[in-house]
């Protein structure tokens, strides 16, 4: 079975290798029509990732695809939807954040009897008129309409979709009267009303949903939550909370991030704390944290941005951390000594965030004693990765973590020498770095990580020559070069053209990469790692002399601005610009 999976992956990879590959198999219509749904969906996904997809290709998948995820694809418009409207067995369609979708595009979905889940969240051009087409989908069970242009009149018509079990109306003008009209939806399990206009009166009506298990009332005026025996997940983030009923409570997850609690002990003890598996208290006004010792089953705990959380708090936390898998201590007063307290008490901990804390390089030694860690966020700290003594580099402690897959070191003080030691973390799949001290050398060292799928190398002094000579890891899917100011648009597009399987992020190519790639010729060399030859002698890029902040200030400066703002520039750059004023443009 394992070998078969590998063979399937190789076949899909070959089919999506290039535009020529697509042209060779797209004529085999009959084969595509009988392709199993999960394979057709995987192939379609790979074509999207590699920017090899165009709307006419959708016609080839109309008889095979059952689930289609186009979330965030900005090119999706009425043409795409016209083809999607012909899908015979489509059950799930996700088009969240497809900004070009409008009411006329949604019309193509009218009457599709197979659709059970539709997500159009954050498609702001869809209004009440577009909702009329959605209401014809009688088998809908999951519907996401958050942050669309649907108004009060449209919300009132949702009652006709009697089979709905999951409904997301976040950010819409839902009122108490709308809650009353929606009570006919007796199958509702999940109801998202965050950012709505609902009040305590409307919240009291929610008892009329007999099967409701997940309720999101964040950013509303609700302050008193009535008894709802079946609700296991409750979100009251950024609300002014007075009480949460404990009568017959089955509450398993409670989210109170940013909430104001006039009587915190009353809120937190109005239900059974020992039964909670998820508790989020980020940015709350809690001072007394003695209740932490009662969290016997907690799996996920968010204490970020709480001024009262310090290294001393870890003694309380250690008493209930046996089952803890997710712990967020970012932007608190926890230091390395606090992390030391947790060692030996968190055998199941997989995700740990220490972002913005006062930890030092000694923390690496303590992290190495937490064997289950998968994801560590150490960003916004003063870590350097330097040796703790004359011979041993502190970051090497992480080699003991055989499950570690994601490491975030953005905005730390890591240098090229420190990054060289990261190359020993061969199991990493996601690595994030952002530091103005890092150069081409670090990127080349990190490219040796064999399992890397996502690499962020932000705000560095990476040069065109460094990017041209880079050979990405075979599994790399995403390369984030945001704020690497020394890179030019031409070099970035050339890299993208050669490595189509790698999605590159940079503000110079933030537009539609498909149209940009079509106008870029491949470099006229057999080996893509050899820099392109240019006429004349190439000197050192003087921008490398300046700090990140100085480059940021100079970014986008035009010659007209430079004429009257010359005195604000660094002396060397000012002289360079004055010299360039006398250079005639090249004939090319």
Could you name the ranges where pLDDT drops below 50 across 5 or more consecutive residues?
512-544, 558-569, 572-577, 580-588
Biggest pleated sheet: 19 strands, parallel
Number of helices: 22
Measured distance between first and last alpha carbons: 58 Å
Residue share in helix: 25-40%
Q: Would you mind describing this structure in some detail?
A:
With 588 residues, this protein is an alpha/beta fold. The protein has a domain at 545-580. The protein has 22 helices and 23 strands. The chain has a 19-stranded parallel β-sheet. Helix 1 crosses helix 4 (37-49) and helix 15 runs parallel beside helix 16. The longest helix is centred in the first third of the chain and has 14 residues, at 2-15. It is flat. The N and C termini lie far apart (58 Å). Mean pLDDT is 86; it is low at 512-544, 558-569, 572-577 and 580-588.
């Amino acid at each position: 079975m394992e070998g078969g999976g590998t063979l399937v992956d190789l076949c899909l990879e070959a089919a999506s290798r290039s535009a020529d590959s697509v042209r060779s198999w797209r004529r085999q219509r009959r084969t595509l029509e009988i392709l199993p749904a999960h394979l057709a969906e995987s192939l379609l996904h790979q074509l999207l990732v590699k920017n090899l997809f165009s709307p006419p290709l959708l016609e080839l998948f109309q008889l095979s695809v059952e689930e289609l995820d186009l979330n965030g694809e900005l090119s999706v418009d009425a043409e795409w939807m016209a083809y999607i409207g012909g899908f015979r067995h489509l059950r799930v369609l996700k088009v969240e954040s497809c900004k070009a979708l409008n009411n006329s595009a949604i019309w193509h979905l009218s009457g599709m009897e197979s659709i059970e889940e539709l997500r159009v969240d954050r498609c702001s051009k869809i209004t009440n008129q577009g909702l009329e087409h959605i209401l014809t989908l009688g088998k809908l069970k999951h519907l996401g309409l958050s942050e669309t242009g649907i108004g009060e009149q449209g919300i009132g018509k949702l009652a006709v979709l009697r089979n709905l079990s999951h409904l997301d109306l976040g950010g819409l003008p839902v009122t108490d009267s709308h809650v009353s009209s929606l009570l006919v939806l007796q199958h509702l399990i999940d109801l998202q009303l965050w950012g709505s206009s609902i009040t305590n009166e409307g919240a009291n009506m929610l008892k009329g949903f007999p099967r409701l298990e997940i309720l999101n009332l964040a950013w509303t005026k609700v302050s008193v939550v009535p008894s709802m025996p079946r609700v296991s997940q409750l979100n009251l983030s950024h609300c002014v909370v007075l009480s949460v009923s404990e009568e017959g409570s089955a509450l398993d997850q409670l989210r109170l991030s940013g909430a104001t609690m006039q009587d915190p002990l009353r809120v937190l003890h109005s239900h059974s704390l020992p039964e909670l598996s998820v508790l989020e208290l980020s940015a709350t006004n809690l001072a007394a944290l003695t209740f932490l010792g009662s969290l016997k089953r907690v799996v996920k705990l968010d204490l970020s941005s709480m001024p009262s959380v310090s290294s001393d708090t870890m003694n309380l936390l250690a008493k209930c951390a046996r089952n803890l898998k997710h712990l967020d201590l970012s932007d608190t007063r926890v230091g390395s000594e606090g992390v030391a307290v947790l060692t030996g008490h968190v055998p199941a901990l997989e995700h740990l965030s220490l972002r913005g804390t006062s930890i030092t390089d000694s923390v690496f030694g303590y992290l190495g004693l937490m064997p289950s860690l998968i994801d560590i966020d150490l960003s916004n700290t003063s870590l350097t990765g330097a040796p703790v003594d004359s011979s041993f580099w502190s970051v090497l402690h992480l080699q003991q973590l055989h499950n570690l897959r994601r490491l975030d070191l953005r905005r730390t003080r890591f240098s090229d020498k420190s990054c060289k030691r990261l190359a020993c973390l061969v199991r990493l799949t996601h690595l994030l770095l952002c530091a103005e001290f890092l150069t081409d050398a670090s990127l080349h060292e990190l490219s040796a990580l064999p399992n890397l799928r996502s690499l962020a190398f932000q705000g560095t002094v990476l040069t065109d020559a460094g990017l041209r000579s880079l050979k990405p890891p075979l599994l790399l899917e995403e390369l984030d070069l945001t704020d690497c100011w020394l890179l030019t648009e031409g070099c970035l597009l050339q890299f993208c053209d050669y490595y189509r399987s790698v999605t590159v992020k940079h503000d110079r190519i933030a537009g539609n990469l498909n149209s940009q790639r079509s106008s870029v010729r491949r470099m006229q060399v057999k080996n893509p790692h050899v820099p392109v030859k240019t006429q004349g002698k190439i000197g050192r890029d003087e921008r490398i002399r300046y700090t990140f902040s100085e480059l940021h200030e100079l970014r986008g400066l035009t010659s007209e601005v430079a004429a009257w703002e010359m005195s604000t520039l660094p002396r060397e750059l000012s002289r360079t610009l004055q010299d360039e004023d006398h250079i005639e443009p090249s004939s090319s």
